[in-house]
Amino acid sequence: ARGRMTAAELVQLLRLEKSSVSRMLGRLVAAGELKESAGDDDARVKHLQLTARGKRTVRAIHAHGRQQVTTALQQLNPSQRQAVAQGLGAYAGALQACRGTDTAPPASPITAITVTAGYRPGLIGRITEMHAAFYARDWGFGSFFESRVASGLADFSQRLHEPCNGIWVATLHDRIVGSVAIDGQDLGPGRAHLRWFILDDGCRGSGVGRQLLGEAIAFCDRAGFESTHLWTFKGLDAARRLYESAGFELAHEAPGDQWGTPVVEQQFSRPGTPRKA
Predict the structure, then answer these.
(1) Is beta strand 191-199 parallel, antiparallel or unpaired with respect to 227-233?
(2) Based on the domain organization, do 162 and 205 belong to the same domain?
(3) Band (1; pLDDT cuts 50, 70, 90)
(4) What pLDDT is attached to residue 99?
(5) pTM (two decimals)
(6) Quick one: angle between helices 208-223 and 237-245, nearest 10?
(7) In which domain, by residue range, is 159 found?
């Protein structure tokens, strides 16, 4: 796809030692996979190009690779395949950033994410799973926290018919990878509670969290809540920056263990736009 290249360009692309690239190219030329040609402007510059034999070899390598990947993925269920796709997308982006090149990275599967409102089958279990996995791995939360998330979601799902309540999920190929909810009842009249804001690991930094939060805030403004509140804890810096960018401010901070593990709990609040009578 790149056409002709010089040995120096390959050294930069592959990030290998010049001597290693020279030896490799020499063997490929000798094997008839590559051919050299003089540059149009400078005969001392040697351009490298695949021969017909080399193109057949590349096609065979690609076909073998696709077959290997297809066979392996067939052993996984749809959720596992999606997790692999997300992980590879995140890795490709990180590798591109590490290389620091101007070449655009391959299209990420993240672009296929859609955000929808309302209940969907599996919502309670999947949102609970994402919370339990993230907070257990990074913060040591246990079964108390997981059961609290599950029971809270189960109760809330029975109140979704109320116009003051709403939930939004981000899905990737029909798998939930993010969520946020607004509970307009449990804090009393005029006060909204932002709850269950979570993203799957492979979606962090993709902009999906900002989109979900935007949907929730827009819902609060349309509903005319006097204020919106959320509870979190110190140390979740990326989430805090997102909250503050949406107009939330730290209202209270104190040690606590409402989630079953001692943390410095934080309450963030955002003024609303009450509807005129």
Answers:
(1) parallel
(2) yes
(3) low
(4) 66
(5) 0.66
(6) 40
(7) 113-271
